[in-house]
């Protein structure tokens, strides 16, 4: 199968100018071109209702798909809210919106209902867009399209360079987007992120169609657009980095108390929890079970920069955990829904382990054949579930029903069913 990057040679978007040309392009061997300025310059940041209304009218009157992106302040602020929203549509140009000044963008979302939204790594931005009233009914995910097409690198910069022949400046991806006013270089970077997104979408659609994968991509995009908001994670404190070191229930209780105390403080101060207290410090305190503030202050993460009042609040959390009854202590592990970890299969059920091994080998071979990551062909969790509790009869109809029950899309069911039928039948024989 031809490498997806071969499309760069055919792309009419590769040029020596600053914007995509209207006619034929040049050779893919030419050096990529730095994209330094948006076509119409940096648009003014929309920060009032009057400007927002004008922008919504312009985008509603535009044509074709709309490019959408959002910038968060991960690592700086509490939560994952959007601090800048960028859009671009033919006939309307580009727009930058301040969702702090304009926190309700539901009117914009309604104006773009039915329009295809083009996002890169859609599942990262959709939660924060949903919070401000922007929910797509149709979308095209350029990162996912790149994965399905077999691109080895699917970051936006790599995709724009490999497919369109332009280099995006990515120096501001991890800045504090809650900063006000936003510096001009950051705004330029943000506007450029949507500058070529629709062009990239068009090129990727052609490549997916050439590979016979366009319908597969459409099913994936529809699944993302129709997915309900994710359920809040149960016991999020269990995701504290370094938790594998904590084994005793009393120590787990300390992690929980410190994590919850930190979360309340971070939310109140609107800062990233890691800026309040690091995960390593939480684990250190849980392992040590300090008896008092002086013992706590001697631990890593609670050094001389930690004030007396802060030390007292952390020690109070430790003391609360130490005072819990046995019945109030958390259990060592979360209840696991579904099969056990694969490493335990050989001991628990050797036949199931053999099924899983055969299924993994078959899925791996098929993924290589169609030039796609295994996890995009079918999720590893789905394969594990079918192999742990296989249908009573390992025929195509039963396996198809099992896969569909676990959320596999029709294209995945069609491709993977023969592989799993073979794996399950071979291990039953």
Number of helical elements = 20
Radius of gyration: 26 Å
Largest sheet: 6 strands, mixed
In CATH terms, what is the fold-level topology of the largest domain?
Nucleotidyltransferase, domain 5
- Helix percentage range: 40-55%
The CATH C-level name of the largest domain is Alpha Beta
* Low-confidence segments: 1-28
Order of helices and strands: HEEHEEEHEHEHHEHHHHHHHHHHHHHH
Mean pLDDT: 91
- Outline: flat
* β-strand amount: 5-15%
Any idea what the CATH architecture of the largest domain is? 2-Layer Sandwich
* Total domain modules: 3
Order of strands, main sheet, comes to 2-5-4-3-6-7
Q: Tally of extended strands? A: 8
Distance between the termini: 35 Å
Structural class of the secondary structure composition?
A: alpha/beta
Oligomer: single chain
Name of the CATH superfamily of the largest domain: Ribonuclease H-like superfamily/Ribonuclease H
Organism: Streptomyces violaceus (Streptomyces venezuelae)
Region (Disordered): 1-40
InterPro entries: 3'-5'_exonuclease_dom, Exo_C, HRDC-like_sf, HRDC_dom, HRDC_dom_sf, RNase_D-like, RNaseH-like_sf, RNaseH_sf
Domain HRDC: 248-328
Salient structural properties:
about 425 residues, alpha/beta, DNA polymerase, domain 1, two-stranded parallel sheet, 20 helices, flat, disordered N terminus, Ribonuclease D, HRDC_dom, RNase_D-like, 3'-5'_exonuclease_dom
